[in-house]
Structures are given as C-alpha cells and as structure tokens.
C-alpha cells in the first residue's frame, strides 16, 4: 500500500465503510448508493467489472476462483484483520458469496456487520427443493414439481408438457453452462435434456417443473428490506423482459407497478424463512387460473434494485443505517410509474422477442 492509499484508508476508518463481494452492476448500485452518503467502499472480485472502477471504491482486492470456496471465508477474515475493517458492512452481491457468508456467518460476524442471514435462513432460497417445501407449508402457490431419482423415473411422472429441467442449486448450472433451465416440449425432449443436465449437475439435484403460462406482463416481483422475517420496506414491480427471454439469468426491463395482492404471499414466505436484509421474491401470474405462483427468492441485492432508489426506497443506505448504526427507518411509500432498463442485455432480449414474434413496450 502506497502513502496515498494509507491516507485514504485512515480517513475511511473514521466512517465504517462497506466491503462488497462482486463487482457487477448490482454491486455498483450498492456502492453508488452508499458513496453518495460519504460511505467508502472496498470491492472483492475475481475479475474487474463495472463496480471495480467506481470513484467511490477506495481499494480493490482480487480473489481467484469461485467465492463458494470455503477458503474465501478465511480470506475475508484475514482481510478484515489486515485492513482493520472491524464494524464494516459486508454485502454479498452474488450467489456464491451469499452461500459462503451464510455458512460462515458466526465467524465473519466477529469482524463485519453482515447483511446476509445465516445458512439456516438462506438455505430456503438457495435450495429449490426446500423452496418447494416451504411454499407448501406456508400455503403459497408454487409450480408443480417432480424429483426423478434416476432416468427411468422420467416415464412414470404424471407430467403436462411443456416442462423444464432445472437444478435444485441454480448456481451449479449457471457456473457450468450459463443456463438456469432446460425446456422440454415432450417426453423425447425430456430424456434428451435430462442427459444434458446430468453432465452439468449431480443427478440428485435435478428437478422437473411445469412451465407457468403467461406473457411478459405476468412476471412480477416484491422488493423488500426485511428484519427477522418481517417486511420493513417494500415495493412491487413487473419484470417486462429478461435475458435470455425464456429462462433469463437476469431481468433487463422492469417497471415499478403497485401490486398490493403480492404482499401477503411474499410475507408468508419471508416470515417462514425469518429472512433479513434485501430480499426479492419473484412470482408469475398463471394465465390458466389467475393465481400468482412463487418462482424464486434472491436473498441479496437483485439486478434492478436501483429502481427502488428512483422510487424513493434507498434500500442499501437504509440497510447500512440499520446494521451499522442500529437505526430503523419508518415504512416509506414508493413512487410508482418509473422504469429500469439494462441496455447491455435488453437490446439482445428485444432482438430475441422480435425473432419470436413477441412485442412488448
């Protein structure tokens, strides 16, 4: 560390900062939110992405490999000791980091102010088999799902095509193939996709799930800040486009829309988990019966969380005030009617829709 960096760190220690795990656009949103309030940031990633170059970042640290390596927790503990980061807020901005922080919660909490809950909370979102169980026990509608133990089980499943094959732990397929799911329109395709899936993930992780019918307007989300299972701040949104358009890795075009009917099912799920921190709960409206079905839970900053800031909910800063200073904010009323677009992926999503004969705003 040169003299300038030492001076910057000494000044930063006067204000507890944030250390962000990951440097993509989600991380950039967190860093900008806090930076505007004078809160310094450190960033850790295996490759420099947009947040790496933010003017609010005072130091950058490289970690080679995946953040779900148990040694990553040791790295964070050593970093906290070496850089005197006691009391700094730790934000996991990507799923592999969420898994590590949650599993090593007790040790990391001795140094950092954590925004990721412990594993006994996170597991309900991380493992889709447990998400299915939670939805049933919390009486929240969920897509019909089957769990073939082996290939020979596929022909015995009472399926209504089309379906998808997906892993119980989604990051496993995302890491290996940049995919979330594999579609199958009939039994023959199901066998083919099963063979593809078992080359990517363990067979005991494979799930077969019905595809919920409905257009882009049917994909919705509840964006929350939670404290021990209770929603403290909330807004709702419609996820108009995602990329890829069928089973997207992330939303690309989102509009803030008031959907109060989503609040009860979201609260049932979050209360069951006893979730804390920034959590997005994704639903899709089933065009067959008009019922919203639970799709996914992101227990970290999600792709479009900066839309919440535009709508009046600066969730990263509210979270910082809560975990660092113990200050809670009264429930705020978001301003609806604004849109968020990630141009880098929405252009590609729009081209995919045009080729498929789909038109959206």
Describe the protein's architecture and organization:
This protein is of the alpha/beta class and 361 residues long. It has 3 domains: 114 residues, Rossmann fold (3-Layer(aba) Sandwich); 67 residues, Dna Ligase, domain 1 (2-Layer Sandwich); 142 residues, D-amino Acid Aminotransferase, Chain A, domain 1 (2-Layer Sandwich), CATH 3.30.470.20. It has 13 helices and 15 strands. The strands form 3 sheets. A 6-stranded antiparallel beta sheet has the order 14-13-10-11-12-15. Strands 3-2-1-4-5 form a 5-stranded parallel beta sheet, with helices on both faces. Helix 4 runs antiparallel to helix 6. The mean pLDDT is 93.
Name a few traits of the molecule.
single chain; 361 residues; alpha/beta; Rossmann fold; Dna Ligase, domain 1; D-amino Acid Aminotransferase, Chain A, domain 1; 3 domains; six-stranded antiparallel beta sheet; five-stranded parallel beta sheet; 13 helices; globular
Summarize the topology.
Layout: H1 3-12, E1 18-21, H2 25-35, E2 41-45, E3 57-62, H3 70-82, E4 89-92, H4 95-103, H5 105-108, E5 113-114, H6 119-126, H7 128-137, E6 145-146, E7 163-167, H8 170-177, E8 182-184, H9 187-200, E9 206-210, E10 219-227, E11 230-243, E12 250-256, H10 263-273, E13 277-285, E14 292-298, H11 305-310, H12 315-325, E15 339-341, H13 343-355
Parallel strand pairs: 1-2, 1-4, 2-3, 4-5
Antiparallel strand pairs: 6-9, 7-8, 7-9, 10-11, 10-13, 11-12, 12-15, 13-14
Helix pairs in contact: 4-6, 6-7
